[in-house]
């Protein structure tokens, strides 16, 4: 086996294992929440499920290392897989809960009358109707794990534990070996194309948006409540173990002048990327541009590391263009698929409800925006603005390619500190985390929409 | 619209940083570690002698620093680089170097260190006495990736020097008990300190650091009978520097007794002259080991091949 | 003989209050009529146990059902829609009324077939719900409730999705089945005139209260309460 094919094999192996462990856990959490959805902790847990999506990946991994570092060697295949499971199962739960809402409430009432046990309800009522969603979310997870960058970068990264993305990055930045990088890029392209083909053949990506107002069945199942606590644990523990020691490390971190420069850099980028990505998303969705839908699934298929590497080649040949331009492009590429998915559902719902009325009134584009779209889409627009802020502020992948070490940007600084000044890194992590959440909420406060969940 | 926004980023990201003359020094992360890096005290001491600011740009490891410099080429802001080692290029002949690494105008050696396996004597009462014994031992070992770590590269050279043609087989023998290859020395040492494995590839002087600074005299270094691999550490002046005089001054400063003292007591590497008093008194102190010799020229020309051999040993 | 007794039943959720007493003789067939939001579905949910009243009692003959979970009540509730699981064949959907494992012995298979025959869909037993018409789906759901042998059958708008011809057919079938199996029926409908000849009683609900009840034919021809008059449009 050549080294390149070894990397390919490892990439697929870790993705398959991660997927097989993440999905059941996510489903158990989702089911526990659905079955106890009137219970206070379950409602809170549901609101928190979106949190890992806006938590900076590095902060999560830092917490993961603190939490599990003493239990087993986290810098290993099992560490990578466990981290994937911890960070992705809340997303799986969120996705599955949205699918659960599509099961008619009557089916649960029937099942109750027919005295079906919990197992039979899962078998006859839930599983068959969730099968499509399960397949979709498994596919999404598999793609995300295949293209996993930050987790593998921190917990793997050595020659034995590397994915194509990370190997591609390493051959450029560690070895200064663009030729080998090119091999990995070719393989990555091959992988991406086969994923795209498979997605197309199996129709594995979530398609339509249901406009029905969905309700949860009226159920109670105390025996499932432990999974809700588990969900809390997965989401909150990695954050708590960072936040608590970070308070004492904060003053040390604040004394680092590099922190402030990085902070300003990250904040500037974020304040630019938020409005820019929201604006572009709105334009794409509103004009139903043909590339909108592929764009939403692009993130799954084409890893940002691949885009980063391509742009990096480009930057070597066009040294006059500032690396910040490339940085902006990679970040847009990371944010747009998410914000697109958030906005498209509400926009389509709006269009199908009021579209004909609006058309018959003959409103101009601007009037349509001011009178109809702005008031009714304020909340999802605030969400995508917040997402743009938060994802840009917390992203590590784009910085890994285009941050200059002189002013590395917060995530990049944190990455450096994690291996060297572990204590100080906690302080940096706290600043990163707090600002990320603050920036996400900011548009909701300003626009007075008070959204505390991010639901896709 | 997009164009204006991008211009805005450009403007913001290039805002000027300082007023005083600034010396931009590229260095690797270990150099600035609060517990075993001389970066901060050196900066303080040098700034007292000049009306200037030393600004460190921190790269993760020495090879990454070199890659960065190569990537930036003549655009680099660096005036000085610290932490270069002779195994990275054709050293003794600076004219050759000037061709290969044309960015560096002048090199000043300021210290040296010797590589060694550091082990926990509480877990391993009778440690291996030679490289061969170590390879055949059952102990888990933490090593560094030779592609990204200068320490790891050192081990690669050492293995090749010791085994020549048979090195692939030796890598295979070692593969069964390598815990991990870390990106840099710092990660490896952090893992070792957390007890992830009883042996780590590091430096002879770590035993002194562990005894004097950490009060853990049981973490000792192995001096092998056949000798250890040592290398000299250099500071380099970048050709494109706009602060040529200041850079020269800094290089000279590194050789002053004050700087030499700071380097040995903070970085835990051997100064060019005079070993600190405290070291001589330490139980773990051993004189610098016998040196395994290598030619930097050979390293620079064969490095790629040796790395392929290493990969083969682990993946074929 | 007394069948179902609702005694001072009180249920409140947000603005809506339901407060009523009602007695259905065993074997009776009762129409529950009222505008949207009058509380028809809520009442059926309370009787079947999917909602719990704040006060009052629900009795089936001498048994107090008020605190029993839905599966232990001697009744079946049929919905306007979604009575069948989309991924199961008709015989499996109906067979769930016998036992969830769906491993039937000879006797059970015979009984399943007998019931399917009774509601007239035995020839469709291998089809999936989406291959059936609306009326056939309702028959399958009815067949399942017969297998469960519960004496009380609650139907929430069973005629809703059906065209006029099918509604008539369904009503005839319901009447015959109720006679044969000695069922007590309570059904809600928006077409009281069509359903009138099936039922022996009619209850008119408005704002969570019973405003009028009695013989359907006379109520329909001579409604006395103004709400009922307005509802019927006369």
Short account of what is shown:
Chain A is mainly alpha-helical.
pLDDT below 50 for ≥5 consecutive residues: which ranges of chain B? 13-18, 90-99
CATH level-1 class of the largest domain in chain B:
Alpha Beta
Report mean pLDDT of chain B, rounded to a whole number.
81
- Biggest pleated sheet of chain A: none
As a percent range, the share of helical residues of chain A equals over 70%
List the helices and strands and how they pair.
The complex is a heterotrimer of chains A (456), B (316) and C (234).
Chain A: H1 3-35, H2 40-48, H3 51-54, H4 57-68, H5 77-100, H6 105-113, H7 118-146, H8 150-155, H9 164-173, H10 178-202, H11 225-254, H12 257-286, H13 292-301, H14 304-317, H15 323-361, H16 365-394, H17 397-402, H18 410-420, H19 422-446
Helix pairs in contact in A: 1-5, 1-7, 1-11, 2-11, 4-11, 5-7, 9-10, 10-14, 11-19, 12-15, 12-16, 13-15, 14-15, 15-16, 16-19, 18-19
Chain B: H1 2-13, E1 21-28, H2 39-49, E2 52-59, H3 62-72, E3 80-85, H4 94-100, E4 104-120, H5 131-135, E5 141-144, H6 150-163, H7 167-175, E6 178-182, H8 185-193, E7 199-203, H9 206-213, E8 219-221, E9 228-238, H10 244-254, H11 257-267, E10 270-271, H12 277-281, E11 291-292, H13 296-315
Parallel strand pairs in B: 1-2, 1-3, 5-6, 5-7, 9-11
Antiparallel strand pairs in B: 3-9, 4-7, 4-8, 4-9, 4-10
Chain C: E1 2-13, E2 16-25, E3 29-34, H1 40-48, E4 55-60, E5 63-64, E6 75-78, H2 90-95, H3 106-119, H4 134-147, E7 152-156, H5 164-181, E8 184-188, H6 192-195, E9 201-206, E10 209-214, H7 216-221, H8 226-232
Could you describe the 3D structure shown?
The complex is a heterotrimer of chains A (456), B (316) and C (234). Chain A is an all-alpha fold. Chain A has helices spanning 3-35, 40-48, 51-54, 57-68, 77-100, 105-113, 118-146, 150-155, 164-173, 178-202, 225-254, 257-286, 292-301, 304-317, 323-361, 365-394, 397-402, 410-420, 422-446. Chain A is globular, with a radius of gyration of 22 Å. Chain B has 316 residues and is an alpha/beta fold. Chain B folds into two domains: 15-112 and 231-281, D-Maltodextrin-Binding Protein, domain 2, CATH 3.40.190; 114-229 and 286-315, Periplasmic binding protein-like II (D-Maltodextrin-Binding Protein, domain 2, 3-Layer(aba) Sandwich). In chain B, strands 1, 2, 3, 4, 5, 6, 7, 8, 9, 10 and 11 form an eleven-stranded mixed sheet that branches. Residues 13-18 and 90-99 of chain B have low confidence and may be disordered. Chain C has eight helices and ten strands. Chain C has a domain at 81-149. Chain A binds chain B through residues 1-3, 6, 69-70, 73, 75-76, 157-161, 170, 173-176, 258, 261, 265, 268-269, 272, 276, 279, 316, 319, 322, 324-325, 328, 405-407, 416, 419-422, and chain B through 1-2, 5-6, 8-10, 12-14, 17, 24, 29-30, 32-34, 57-60, 63-64, 66-68, 70-71, 75, 77, 145, 147-148, 179-184, 186-187, 190-191, 194, 196, 311, 314-316.
